[in-house]
Amino acid sequence: MSRPLFLRIVEALGQWSGYFTQRVDAVNRQGLSPLQKCTAAIRQLATGSCADELDEYLKIGETTAMEALKNFVKGIRDVFGERYLRRPTMEDTERLLKLGEKRGFPGMFGSIDCMHWQWERCPIAWKGQFTRGDQKVPTLILEAVASHDLWIWHAFFGTAGSNNDINVLNQSTLFINELKGQAPRVQYMVNGNQHNIGYFLADGICTGTRRGKKGY
């Protein structure tokens, strides 16, 4: 994470809640700084560090580190959720389609793929349902859609690692608007044929679906 982005998050969370500000206790001693609390939370999220590992260099106890993590996640959702954790608006959709057409893919909404995150502390009783033969270890699957400028506008996380990409797609919320009849309609020409359903660039077995196409 870049320093400017980190400081922007710290500042925004400080405005959101007094928890992420420098405070003093009853005897006028300085408490933990917002930098310490945000660093502790990000370390746990980004590297899987245990809360009790952070005391040595951050001087923050296990209980406080867990509290910081919970407040950090809630703050990120409340402060940035409306802008980043949302579906594309009609304006966003038009922009994505224009970008796709400009790059030689008319009708494309973005690129879709699934990745496996290793679950190191998966309970033994659950390992079978979270392990796939090609992965060898228990995993959780993240399905994401991103535009070329790395705007990740869809993320579906938590599916058991034993699933393949098609199984994940069938459980995903990605096409919920289409099922409701609310999906944006598009019109574009490919090889002289008119199409009115957008698509996503994909690889593997997803290219066999109605909305997945492979780029060559």
TrEMBL record:
It comes from the Eukaryota. InterPro entries: Harbinger_derived_prot. This is Uncharacterized protein. It comes from Zizania palustris.
